[in-house]
Amino acid sequence: MSDERRKIMRVLGGETLSPPPLWLMRQAGRYLPEYRETRAKVGSFLDLCYSPEHAVEVTLQPIRRYGFDAAILFSDILVIPDALKRNVRFTEGHGPEMEPIDEAGIFALKADGVLGHVAPVMETVRRLRSELPDETTLLGFCGAPWTVATYMIAGHGTPDQAPARLFAYQYPKAFEHLLTLLADISADYLVAQIDAGADAVQIFDSWAGVLGEKEFEAFAARPVARMIASVKARRPQARIIAFAKGAGYQLKTYRQKTGADAIGLDWSVPLAFAKELQREGPVQGNLDPMRVVAGGRALEDGIDDILQQLGNGPLIFNLGHGITPQANPAHVSALVERVRAWKG
Predict the structure, then answer these.
(1) Under 8 Å between Cβ of 324 and 293
(2) For 93, 193, 273, 290, which has the most beta carbons within 10 A of its beta carbon?
(3) Which of 32, 11, 114, 14 shows the shortest CA–CA distance to 74?
C-alpha cells in the first residue's frame, strides 16, 4: 500500500498529526512476559535474532498488546560485526562480547558474505510486512559506524568508550578505514531491509555523546552522512531517522550534515532546543524511560510536557532511549492512552 495510512510515514514526510503517532525503542523486550516466554524457548540472544519465526513473534508482541504505530524489527546492531566474523556472543549479566580488533585486523576485514550472513534478518522483515496491520509502519535499523566500532575495538561495552577514542588517536588511518567499511556495509544492509519491506529505517548512534566537537564531526556525523547518501542514491524515497544519543548541542547541525529525515532525541535534550530542531523537520522522542518505570504523576507530567512543547509540529512520540526491563507493562498502556487522548 502507499504510505498514506501509515501515520509515522506521514510525519517523516513533514506532516503534523494530532495526536502524534508513537512507538517505543526496545518495545519488544524483557519488560513483557510474552517476550521472556519466547526468549526461554530459543538458545542464545543471537539465535533469536537469526530465527525469523521467533523474531517475527517478538516484534509483533507489543503491536498486539498496545497497537503502536510502528513495529521495529527485532534484531541487534551487532549482527554486522558478527557477519564480519568477530565471534559476537551475548552472556547473561555481561552484555555483548567479541574478539577485540587491532590495526591489522581492521585492514584484514572482508565485506564479502555479510548480506548472506544476515539473510535470516531479511526473511524476518518480509514476513513482518505481510503479517503487520496495513496501517503499521515497519522500521528497520542498524548501528551507526562509530557505535559499532566501539564494541569491535574494546570487545565489549565500556562506560565512556575510552578504548575506541584512544585507538582513533593512535591509529587514525585504521580507524577511518573501519568507519568507512562499516558505513558502506551498513548502507547495503539498510537498502536490503528496505527492499525486503521496511517502510523506514533508524540509525542508532548510542555512543555519540562521548565525542568531542571534532571527533563528533569525523566519527559520528560524517560516516552517517555517507550511509544516508548511499541509501538515498539507490532508494530515493527512503525515510531515515538518525538517533545520536547524548549529542546535545551537536544536534543543531546534525540533520543538515547527515541528510536524515528525522532526528531522534534523548531525554536530556531540552524541549526548547527540541522545538528549534523541529522547525527544520520531524523530531522523535524524548521521554525519560525512568518515567515509565515510575508511572503515575511522573509519567503523566513527562508526556504532557513533550506534547505541549512539540505536539504542534512534526513529532513521533517515543522514549529518549530504550524501555528498561523493570518497566511495568501497565504503565506503557497508560502512556499509550494518554498520548492518544491528547488534542493539540
Answers:
(1) yes
(2) 193
(3) 32
If one counts every other C-beta atom within 10 angstroms of the C-beta of residue 145, the result is 29
- Per-residue pLDDT reduced to its tens digit, 41-92: 998 899 999 999 999 999 999 999 999 999 999 999 999 999 999 999 998 7
Whether residue 9 contacts residue 137, with contact meaning beta carbons closer than 8 Å, is answered with yes
69 catalytically annotated:
no
Query: Does residue 171 have an active-site annotation?
Result: no
pTM for the model: 0.97
Catalytic residue among 39, 65, 89, 235: 39
CA distance 321 to 191: 24
| Beta sheet of 200-205, edge-to-edge order | 70-72, 137-143, 200-205, 239-244, 262-264, 283-287, 315-319
User: Looking at 6, 10, 26, 127, which residue is catalytic?
Assistant: 26
Cα–Cα distance, 287 to 1 (Å, whole number): 31
